[in-house]
Amino acid sequence: MSIAILKQRLNQSVDNFSEADQVHNKFVKPTKLMKTLALIERKFDDMENTQPIEEKIAKSILKLEEHGTDYLTKRDWKNLAWSLSKKLLNYEDKILFTFIGGQLIEQFSKMEPESLKSVYFPLLYSYFAVEQDEINKRPNNWIQLRNILNNNRSTLFQATLKPKKWLTTLTDHPEVLSLDPSKRFIRDFLQNSDDSRVSKQLESLSIAPNSWFWDSLVNSSIKSVKTMKEEDYFKVIPRFLLLLERNPIYTTAILTALLERYASTSKRAVVHEALKHTCLTQWDNPQYDSSAGWRNVSLDTKKMVIQWFVRADLEAFFKLFSQTADVDRFDYWIKFIDKISFSQIFLGPAAVQSRHAEHRKFRELNRGRLKNITGSTPSNNAFLLKIDNVHIVDFSDTGNACYGYSDLPFNLSKKNITVHELKNKPHSIFRNGFGDTIGLSHAGNWEARFDKTLAELGVFSDQPNGGLSKRRRNRY
To answer: Which residue range or ranges hold the Zorya protein ZorC EH domain (predicted)?
Structure first.
């Protein structure tokens, strides 16, 4: 006899021997008894939903195989319901995905509601206890199991005098048995950095950590990025980056979704430092063709990220590290950003050894990307830009010419490169009126001369007012 029935009979007896308006006067409220009853109920529920040992499950399966269903007891059926989530000896897959699993699902689908009541929770546990990869291989049995659970959920709840916590949770969240089980939880999942928020809501269902449900929740959340409002998308980027850090298995899916969505926003030209750093860490530098991770995004999206690196490099070069740099040069080179496919910074001793917080942060975020320039003054830095098919090398300290190459005359894989290698005039494709190779000087109206020289090499800026810096244009 169940606890619920005993409780019902006790209340009925009290009603029979007491006047309704006097009952509370004749009896003291049994507080301790009620607490003990609640404790017994919890223990009873725990015992009822405790998984049997595999030996008992195996015996019930053997009994089914040797004698059929006629000799199976109520306990055997419960063991068989639990068995669907198990991978036993002599079976290559979990029982749910085997031939005998198919037979069991068929038997459970024919059960009367009263008989199904005792096996419902083990079936529910088995429904959640499998992984997405297993479902992908053989989905039919799992889908039929979901149908059994969904078709009998309401009947079970209505027929239960005092529903267990898991049944109440299932009634409150019936969508977990639907075709889109995680839709309702996506917002909670994305708006809270606490990964356990959803699991706490569904705690009584005992969903395993490696369940298909969590995989569905994450993947559905990732897919939702495409249809989010722009303002909502920018808010969830940190949440996704945290999720990626905690669950590396979703790295490719998360980065692909975030970057493709970013490329379609109104802020695609604005560098997102955290996303940029994660990309560099996970997929390496997008400016190198050998970085295979970048094949997961479109060429346009990859170009956007390359421009992030280029812009960040130029801003660091002219505005962060090089106090002696001519800012007009930044204004000049940034106008070619749509044509730049590669950038490289060479730092001098002063920049390499600087303990300035922003200098250290930039070096840390670009670990592995930066090179050293040797043989020059401590304050001199250099940068390399590939604009279309022309490689440009320029310097921060005034008095240094700019050089152009069709092919680099130095080994870019080296960590340390001398200033003389960067200033390889014999290999320069810039020439004077006599046909001699030269470096371009920054004296006078150098922007116009640079524009003319680059135009002769087929390099043009798409931006208007090229050839004059902002400061110079303001003079006229």
So the answer is: 96-451
